[in-house]
Predict the structure of DUF3817 domain-containing protein.
Amino acid sequence: MTALRIPAAIEAVSLVVLLANLVTVHAPTVTSVSGPIHGFAYLMVVLVALLREGTPVRARLAALLPGVGGLIALRLVSPGRRAQAG
C-alpha cells in the first residue's frame, strides 16, 4: 500500500517539524515551507483512502483525522491486520 504509506509518512514527519518549530525557535520560514507540505500530504492521504477500492470504511474515516489519520488508516489496511480479522 505504497500509495498511502508515502503521504502518511510525509504527513507525520511534517507535523513533527511544525510542532518542533512551534516549541523551539518558531521560524516563519520553516512554518511557511512545512505547512503547505503537511496540508498537501493530508489531502493526498484523504484522497487515496477515499478513492482506493477495497479500503474499509474505518480506514476511510480514520484518514480524515488530521496529523495521525494517515498512519491509523495505513494500519487498518495493512495485510497483517486483514489476516487477523478474517
Summary: The chain is about 80% helix and 0% strand. Residues 2-85 form one domain. The radius of gyration is 14 Å. The helical segments are 2-23, 28-51, 57-63, 69-77, 79-85.
